[in-house]
Amino acid sequence: MRPLRPLRRTATAVAAASTMTLSLAACGALGVTGDGSEASPTKGDDVTVGLLLPETANTRYDKFDYPIIKNKVAELTNKLGNVVYRNADADAKKQASQLQQMIDDQVDVILLDAVDSHAIADGVKAAKDAGIPVIAYDRLAEGPIDAYVSFDNELVGEVQGRTLLEAMNPVDSSDKIVMMNGSPTDPNAKQFKAGAMSELKGAVDIAKTFDTKDWKPENAQANMSEAIKAVGVNNIKGVYSANDGMAGGIIKALQAAGVSELPPITGQDAELDAVQRIVSGEQFMSVYKSYPQEAESAAEMAVAKVQGHDIQFDSLTQDQVDSPTDKDISALLVPVVALTEDNIKETVVADGIYSVADICTAKYKADCNSLGLK
After folding, report:
1. Nearest 5°: CA angle at 236, between 232 and 242?
2. Counting Cβ atoms within 10 Å, is residue 34 exposed (0-12), middle (13-18) or buried (19+)?
């Protein structure tokens, strides 16, 4: 296996950007445009941030992203700022309507996590024409977006693929795995897949692969049942699952087929159920992505954009990405971590995502004790 490529933006760089933000604020440089030679604020603290999130199947959006962004906007605006939140429930047409409503309501800036990155492009252009900046959040939307904040998605896939191979060790190129990718309308899913393939291709036999509609666990469960029939339940040595919700569906399919000793299964998002499955040994790993860091950075970018704090905005967007419609988009790419039973304390517990009590309920108490989670 080749070594993981380095992040284009390191944790140190992100910390440096945050430090720069604080330093600029202390020096009185924020609230200006251009080179900072003269103040020209474009908006006061009474900003309205439109937040469009894609679905509810993944619990992170309602549990983490929205409340973190809401609280950060309030903090940045002396509690005068407002976040208008809408969730599309995995319906691209519904999200297009929600976006248009925010344009009609003349919100100041929009944070957009697209259901369908291509279909939303016309709406992004309409917002741009109305003078409303659009920042792509978590998924890279097409159209004239002003910036993008997410994780290094190919690296996510690489971490998943590499960790799966490590779990299968010793691994043979004839070992069969099932590959359960995310929604075909989500550009992130393509990047996760590409990253994973860079580790898995040639190292194992990818016996069945699926693109899972809407990321839904029940669709992943149905796909896995199909794979079990085609490949043979005893021939499946590992499962690449692009996220935790689907991993849950995959496990249900394997258990329904009579599997008592599950093969290593990957995931992503560090959902509580997944962390508990890692504790119990049902799921081998997840990818922990610091939602507080991503969400707070998005809030900072949104407020800085509409208040004309160009120096702060530039300090937060020192990466660049390309979409199918635009090149050299200013971006922030947040680092990721492979979450296994070995680093639960150092990741989700240390960051305050979950407490040990949240994870170690009665069902998982014995497993937690064996891992030193007390």
Report:
1. 125
2. exposed
- How far CA 68 is from CA of 6, 63, 110, 138, 366, in Å, comes to 28, 9, 16, 14, 33
Q: Are 103 and 129 in contact (CB under 8 A)?
A: no
pTM (2 d.p.) = 0.73
Distance of CA 151 to CAs 297, 329, 332, 334, Å? 12, 15, 8, 5
CB 115 within 8 A of CB 55: yes
Q: SS3 for 127?
A: helix
- State pLDDT tens for residues 103-153: 999 999 999 999 999 999 999 999 999 999 999 999 999 999 999 999 999
Contact predicate 224/259, CB 8 Å: no
Helix (H) / strand (E) element for 249: namely helix 244-256
Alpha helices, DSSP H, located in 110-152: 121-129
Structure confidence by residue, pLDDT tens digits, 197-248: 999 999 999 999 999 999 999 999 999 999 999 999 999 999 999 999 999 9
* Distance from the Cα of residue 62 to its chain's centroid: 13
Distance of CA 113 to the CA centre of its chain: 10
Neighbours of 356 (CB within 10 A): 12
Residues 6+ apart with CB under 8 A from 89: 55, 56
Structural contact between residues 150 and 333, judged by C-beta atoms closer than 8 angstroms: yes
Please identify which residue in the block is written with the tokens 């741009």: 128
**Rounded to whole angstroms, how far apart are CA atoms 56 and 62?**
7
331 neighbors 247 (Cβ within 8 angstroms): no
List, in sequence order, every beta strand (DSSP E) within 268-309: 286-289
Is-contact 258 250, C-beta < 8 A? no
What type of residue sits at position 257? A
- Which residues neighbour 181 within 8 Å (Cβ) at sequence distance 6 or greater? 189, 192, 193, 209, 210, 211, 212, 240, 242
Nearest in space to 55 (alpha carbons), one of 118, 138, 145: 138
Determine the Cα–Cα distance for residues 127 and 144; give it in Å rounded to an integer: 9
In degrees, rounded to 5, the angle at the alpha carbon of residue 39 between the alpha carbons of residues 38 and 45 is: 170
Pairing of strands 109-112, 236-241: unpaired
What count of Cα atoms within 13 Å lies in the side-chain half-sphere of residue 70?
Answer: 12
Check if the beta carbon of residue 40 is closer than 8 Å to that of residue 310. no
